[in-house]
Amino acid sequence: MNQKVLTETRLPGVELYARGKVRDIYRVDDRLLIVATDRISAFDYILGSGIPRKGEILTQLSLFWLDFLKDVVPNHLITARVEAYPEPLPAYRDQLERRSMLVRRAQMLEVECVARGYLAGSGWKDYKATGSICGIALPPGLEESAELPEPIFTPATKAQSGHDINISFEEAAALIGREVAERVRDLTLEIYRRAASYARGRGIIIADTKFEFGFADGELILADEVLTPDSSRFWPAAGYRPGGPQPSFDKQYVRDYLESIRWNKQPPAPSLPEEVVRNTSAKYLEAYRLLTGKSL
Predict the structure, then answer these.
(1) Which of 51, 102, 124 is CA-nearest to residue 281?
(2) How far is CA 88 from CA 19, 29, 84, 94, in A?
(3) In order of start, what are the domains of the chain with their CATH numbers?
(4) Is the Cβ–Cβ distance between 168 and 134 less than 8 Å?
(5) 160 contacts: CB under 8 Å, gap ≥ 6
(6) Main-chain phi, psi angles of 284, to 5 degrees
(7) pTM of the predicted model, to two decimals?
(8) Is 23's pLDDT higher than 50?
């Protein structure tokens, strides 16, 4: 593909705070600059190919949802306008435009806040083994991808490497305190219900999603990415048929390709064929268009 792919940022004179699977994070005085690159990971490894415009799509979709949800929960965003960033950041506009956010620093909670409305992924595996997810008993006889009787909150521990681990609400409460656990459970489910209802009207089922919360100046806020194809399972509503896996707008397409070539999920991670890169980029762009009503 001829489109430029940004897989690593370089901002001389700005302190690199952390580099994740997708995001490069810089310290800017008492704030953070979050830059979404075009890296893509699967099975806990960064792949050898970037996805054109992926970082832009993730950032712009997060900005859309932060605005959509602003009356539900405060968030970490200060500005996404490069011209409003402090020096020397505007000089790096070519790396930052439309793929970065200047945000408040927060003391992040030690749990991932997951909402599930459908039976898929690790939830489906747990259900098959135990009839429950994270200690929440579910009706017997549910099929893969079935809609749950009501959305459920299924927290997980944050793993520095490897998969996050599903935990019960009681275990989450032991980690972050019961009062905070109850607040983020209620917020997670409220955000999910609002977003899922909106998305369904735009032709997308949000099967599940995860949020991150933290405290800034004593205030509980929503942080990191929000309701993107990387943090959520997006299915086309028109073709929804429970009883098996669903087509998706997220990186499940990439995972399926990697399974088809029988990669052993050990380094080095493979690169993706041009067709898979192109189709993945198209899926992310289509999800953005459907959800926002705009084209990038």
Answers:
(1) 51
(2) 20, 12, 11, 13
(3) 15-105 (3.30.200.20), 108-250 (3.30.470.20)
(4) yes
(5) none
(6) -65, -45
(7) 0.94
(8) yes
